[in-house]
Amino acid sequence: MTSSREWSDRLAADRVALDRGSTTERVTDVLRTRITEGMFAPGTRLSEDGLTVALGVSRNTLREAFRLLSHERLLVHELNRGVFVRMLPADDVADLYRLRRILELAAVDAAADAPPEALDQVRQALSEAESAAAEDRWMDVGTANMHFHRALVGLAGSPRMDEAIRQLLAELRLVFHVMEPPREFHEPYVRENRRIYHLLAAGDIAGARAALADYLDLAEKQLVEAYSERAAAVDTATRRGARRR
Amino acid sequence: MTSSREWSDRLAADRVALDRGSTTERVTDVLRTRITEGMFAPGTRLSEDGLTVALGVSRNTLREAFRLLSHERLLVHELNRGVFVRMLPADDVADLYRLRRILELAAVDAAADAPPEALDQVRQALSEAESAAAEDRWMDVGTANMHFHRALVGLAGSPRMDEAIRQLLAELRLVFHVMEPPREFHEPYVRENRRIYHLLAAGDIAGARAALADYLDLAEKQLVEAYSERAAAVDTATRRGARRR
DNA sequence: GCATATTTGTCCGTATGTATA
DNA sequence: CTATACATACGGACAAATATG
């Protein structure tokens, strides 16, 4: 048993300087961004030992963060084997879009009763995406596009629908990251979103609904297509780690 | 290396070995039924110390169970204050029904493509409710009615919709339990469910949709009404524990 | 198939911080 | 303001499961 105290002190620089919120929350945030930004690829196993050292937290704290992220479906937990970054089967992409369609279309249908602030959120997310696109920050464009669709659901004014779409889109990021290149993937959607927003702002609910339905059909088709190709390659590359009983 | 700790460790290991799932799952199940059956009323604080001795598990294990139930929205976690059985504001009941309507109606709309087994699940839940009603087991009737509506959503064949309705209905149980008496509350819904099932079985999707919409309108109205009365009473009774900054 | 090393699952004891009487 | 109770987080220990050679 060699004391590795010096190492942990050295790597403790990875810790977030800001002390707000609980330690668990901070750890969860760090891991979440690492996953959604692709630093931890799907299928990767997150070792307790390695991460406690790297993040400078105890095993118990780390395990709580694992629990949280498992419930966000970003990690999967296998008994006595540990936690892994979730690998989404292609079928799940279709399922994700089925629910997405239901939530977003229902929200737009209810947009007539939405307060102006809710529509403002939509506009804000759109301009967020457009400035990011203007500066070639394509990862941020992807994030802003998600904010746009979260804001769309926000039109329904339902906290639970908000939460549902939030989780759903976080899960979709696992798929997005398998896609390359980011520009060709994210750029067309900004234009689509702009169209949807303008129809909404003009009060044309039916038009916005139709535009959104088109958007979702297109996005799903492209995504499933490109993803199944990629997934096949990734699958063979990680087969070694997927050995089961 | 024999230590005085050996005995207790061995006993703990035996206790774990007796049950299949992990200790965390066991604890979670126990707490979930305690809550949904009203043994722990909304607003109750669940003390870590008290429950560790009562259940014979460690704090870490118990805390993991708390996390799970918090994500099911049965518990709420307040930083440095502990976990409490969720108290649902009356507004949330309306929100629950908004999402419920969206999910269930969308599922029925997709029922034409559902495999026969899915409809079988619906029928099975219905007869489950009817036999429970015949034997005056009204708590079980409530459970079976939930199975019925979960089975309805199952017609869509979407795992994520299944999960969403499962969580939603679990949350609704927090409301149901405030209601009395159970018979008058649960009984009428069995008849409504039977009607919905028969329309579905006859292939009358539109009719089933309309019947379900009626059902949801009625249920929400009754529930919100009765709940706000009750909630007012409960609120004054538990005001002491709800003091905030 | 077996023996070994690694990793997870669970529990304990304790120190520190936070909220409330 | 002090005291008390409790949650947060840490580190250590060992059993059980899994992976490795």
What do you see in this structure?
With 245 residues, chain A is mainly alpha-helical. Helix content of chain A is 69%, strand content 4%. Chain A is built from 10 helices and 3 strands. The first copy, chain A, has a 3-stranded antiparallel sheet. In chain A, β2 and β3 form a beta hairpin. In chain A, α9 (182-201) runs antiparallel to α10. Chain A is globular, with a radius of gyration of 20 Å. The two termini of chain A are 32 Å apart. At the A-B interface, α4, α5 and α8 of A face α4, α5 and α8 of B. Chain B binds a DNA duplex (21 and 21 nucleotides) through α1 and α4.
Which strands sit side by side, in order, in the main sheet of chain A? 1-3-2
Query: Given the helix and strand composition of chain A, which structural class is it?
Result: mainly alpha
Which chain pair has the greatest contact? A-B, 24 and 23 residues
Distance separating the two termini of chain A: 32 Å
Count of strand segments of chain A:
3
Reported for the largest beta sheet of chain A, the result is: 3 strands, antiparallel
Mean pLDDT of chain A: 85
The unreliable regions of chain A are 1-19, 238-245
Succession of helices and strands of chain A = HHEHHEEHHHHHH
Q: What best-fitting shape of chain A do the alpha-carbon axes yield?
A: globular
Rg from Cα of chain A? 20 Å
The proportion of strand residues of chain A reads: under 5%
Number of helices of chain A: 10
Give helix % range of chain A. 55-70%
Oligomer: homodimer
